[in-house]
Amino acid sequence: MESNINSEQAHPDVAKPTDTTTNKDDPPPTVPDSSAAADGNDDASPAPHIHHSRSGHLLDDSSSSGPENGADKDGSASSPDQNGDVSHDPPPPNLDEEIHLTLQTLSPDIDHFLITLSERKMVVSSQETLVGEMEEKKEHDEKQETEDKDEKNEDPISGEKEAGSREHKPDSEEAGPDDEEGKKEEEKEKQICKKRSTILMPEFVEKYVDLVDGKIRDRDSSSDGKGGGGGGKWCLSPDDDALFMEIVNRFSRLASSLNEFRSDPDHAHLVNRIGSIHQRAMSYLEDEFGFLLQEHANQQPVQEPDSAGKSSAKAAETGEGGSPLPESQSKLEEEKESPYPGYSEETVTNLRNIASQMIAGGYESECCQVYMIVRRHALDETLIQSGFEKISIDDVQKMAWENLEREIPIMTSIIKECASVHFPKEHKLVHSVFSNYPSLSISLFSNLSRGILIQFLNFAEGVAMSKRSTEKLFKFLDMYETLRDGFAAIEGLYPEESEGELKTEATTVKGRIGEAAINIFSDLEHSIKNDHGKTPVPGGAVHPLTRYTMNYLKYAFEYKSTLENVFREHSKIERADSTSRPRFEGDSNQAGGGGDQDNNQSPFAGQLARIMDFLDQNLESKSQLYRDVSLCCIFMMNNGRYILQKIKSSPEIHCVMGDPWCRRKSSDLRNYHKGYQRETWSKLLGCLAQEGVQVHGKVSKTVLKERFKNFNIMFDEIHRTQSQWVVSDEQLQSELRVSIAAVVIPAYRAFLGRFSQYFTPGRQYEKYVKYQAEDIENCVEELFEGNASSIARRR
Amino acid sequence: MPATEFQPSNFLTRISTRRNQITAMDPNHELELEDLELFQRNVSDRFADLLDHPGDGGLLSISWLRKLVDAFLCCEAEFKAVLIMGREPTQLTKPPLDRLMPELLDRAVKALDICNAVSAGVESVRHCQRLAEITVAALENQNPIGDGQVKRARKALGALVASLEEKDHGGSHYKTPERSWSFGRRGAAAAVKDRPTATFRSLSMIVGKNWSAAKQIHAMWANLVAPRGAELNGLALPVYIMNVVMVFVMWALVAAVPCQDRVGLPLHIQIPRQFAWAHSLNGLQEKIGEEWKKKEKKGSAGLLEEMQKMEKLSQGLIEFADGFQFPVEEEGKLEEVAAQVKEMAEVCRRMEEGLVPLQQQIRDVFHQAVRSRSEMMELLEHAGKISQPMM
């Protein structure tokens, strides 16, 4: 059943555009004729007979009333068609041309036929309401006039009417309703029914069906053989595709228009045949549609975008911040420029055309199914290539943090990629392919994206549920930010009314992560409060807790605005253990970095202040572990200094804590300093006091000896212990030394200057005057070094 | 919670007022026992209702599953009331609850994954629904039925049957997407042979690779031991009941809806018979277990009543389509087909009405489980903090 046969059949028809014009004299179409045609479903032999008997006028029509039309079409579109057919058609070119002529010239006829069919319907329906033969005719005529093809139109219609009446006359045994006016209403209605259910099928219809059948088989089978997996015929010749689409479109209309005659025994077989061919055409389109979709989707990822995706995920995995490398970013940019996920503009046009034809032909469901499945696979594939891995929530709970810590950046980078690249492209694609069917594209897009988004959300949920620990905060916040920004972008792709569910889901998960983050802070607070270590840090150095807390806070402040947000949105207002919960002030002003210790503190600033308070309290209690009050002061100074330095080095924290807090802290430090001076050095200075040296107006050598001895012992002791103490902040260290030197050295120098003469030079002098002022200075320089070696050196 | 038959609210207010009284007075063990009894009775009633009045669709139909999920949501809410409301959190950290609570929470996590897998399974049922709808659209109200319609229906049916027969997937499916969607060009002769348009099931696997519904059910069921002796009077019993209800509901969902890897799903979960509330649960699981036994050999899509019906109708329609020749003269044949199509349309309608709400309910279960878990965690943490020595 190839086009050759068709062409042979076509030939005689075309060659005989003769006698006919008077169709009133023509015999009505005979039942056997048409049924025979339809019977021979697979072999088109009957076609010629029909044409011999009856088709003349139609062809004649077309050649008389619409020759330009036919010729035009032929002229414009014949060459590609020719190309397509030549390969199959050995017959001489003139014959070949005649085939085109036939398919082409038949098209206007079919169009015409379709118009008359629809008119007929309208007429019938209008008849049903305001009956009246005359009116009907009038209306008829008007319509025909507007169509500008009066004669041609009238032919099938009147023919059909007659056919209707004649065929059924024998049954009804009544005079033709056409001839006799003023019959009963009832009869009229009967008549209407008959008109509706019967029609004179022009023979060109059958001819046309043959040709279309051939055409579709031709396309369908020629795409069969090609290299195993497929290879649609699509895109080989755009003009041919367009022509084919036109044929399919017309044929779809024909099929649906004629469907109402399916139970008419005269036409049932033809209608059946048309239905069958139509199904085949649709099925063919479905395959082509799937093929085009899949072919391009499969090729594309290998070429460029996913290498970029992969590397960005990798970068996020290895890099600290999770920001993709600039190189891969530029690649992403590049990829962004193409609006579709791997399809050329041309392919998209083809897809759109096919989709439109499938939908017009009533195959919307099939079309959508294919689209969904192929795109969903393609999207999954893309995600997998970006490093996406499905992890059950159960596994997330069991995963070691090191592993989960690696998974989170991969996931966040994938979500970002989806939000910025994949989903917008998918959105663009679906809206381009189904551009005429907005509601369809909306539902396809949301079905496609929903499954993937749910997976993201489930992962996030799993993460939020995982056992909390302070080190997880930053990854949690990354996740939070990604969900916030990513889903905001994705929501933009949905029409407002349908974004609801997604939004709620995203908000819920975001809330859970936010709560987890807040809980982490309260855990931190709790652990500071409950850090009851009993071992003092040697040398009064900065406590690890201080170090940890301050560095943690400093890091956390890189997420300041997010944290402000999180605390504002997800704090629970009250809980049983309210001391460890942020005191949330409902409608307080944005802290705005005012830094004042006002009541309009943001919840996050409140949390921060609380943590600092607890830290202070804890340090104070830790300082009590030192028996030496001086060391206690050094410890407080060290830690206070560390805290202050950290806060000052981070403008953000500084801003939140505020200047008054810092001033207070500084003044505390000064007090500790004074306390230290007093504790350590005022006793020593007692040795150097001028008072008491003279006994009865005379310098007492005994007292002097005592004084120097005491001074030496005390100073040695101070030097020995305090050079083991630790002040690692250089500035604080030098401040301390300077202040010590400033008190001790002048006093010692003066004392020495005044009283050293009383000792006998030599042994006695050396025994009591152990240090010169310079020695004292050197020793002071050795204080707070934190090492025992300096003492060893001296001893 | 749409169309919930059981409103837990009355129970909740009752318990909460009761608890307030309890805390106001001395903790009253009598009253607490009464609450426990009430909880047991409610559980028992709900499942008895599911067993005795499965509704129009019958056991394992969509509407029945929705009822089942509703029952679960209610039991869960009441359980939480019994367990948490007005209670000193430290009670939850004493033996045997110190062991039972973490186990319960762990089971809840596993249930979350099952919810996701089931939800994905429902999605694949929807895919089948759409294929069935194509069949119905092609064959419904066609007189006479033509070749085109039959071919169209046959194609959809082929894909439908392939989807129904598709084995549950493990995790490796996504390595070869081509396998499930290939456009091998057909020969002209084989135009309407079984050529699945595509399989959808593999797409909707959203739980991790190597994840298996059957294994999860096993894991949930393992070491679930009924309380004995003195434990029967304490909180161990409601925790046990909740565990059993959770495992049972998850098990039923997995059995009903196509789900990732169900190979080796336990046929039977043994619930001790001495408990009154266990009777109807046992009754239900025996029935479902029998169905599963029958069905498992064929390895098909799931026990969901509508899918089974769809499968049967598809077979009949495929037979009709394969033997089809235009025109069909036999009146009987046509009537039979028309009846089948009508039934199929009815199945589609029930799916259309029920699947999305069911999916939503399962998502509700997910969210409620997450919420409950975090509330209980919070309580446990709080209890932990209290019990820590203060400075």
UniProtKB/TrEMBL annotation, chain A:
Keyword hit for Calcium: no
Biased composition regions of type Polar residues, renumbered to the chain: 76-85
Annotated Basic and acidic residues bias: 10-27, 134-143, 149-172, 181-191, 574-586
Low complexity bias spans: 32-48
GO cellular component: exocyst
Domain of life: Eukaryota
InterPro entries according to UniProt: Cullin_repeat-like_dom_sf, Exo70, Exo70_C
Domain Exocyst complex subunit Exo70 C-terminal, chain residue ranges per copy: 415-781
MF-aspect GO terms: phosphatidylinositol-4,5-bisphosphate binding
Reported function: Component of the exocyst complex.
Protein family according to the UniProt entry: Belongs to the EXO70 family.
Name of the protein in question: Exocyst subunit Exo70 family protein
Naturally occurring in which organism (per UniProt): Linum trigynum
Automatic annotation (TrEMBL), chain B:
Keyword Transmembrane in record: yes
Membrane topology: Single-pass membrane protein
Annotated protein name in UniProt: Uncharacterized protein
Parts of the chain that traverse the membrane: 237-257
Organism: Linum trigynum
Family statement: Belongs to the ROH1 family.
Localization annotation: Membrane
UniProt keywords, alphabetically: Membrane, Transmembrane, Transmembrane helix
GO cellular component, one term: membrane
InterPro entries in alphabetical order: ROH1-like (IPR008511)
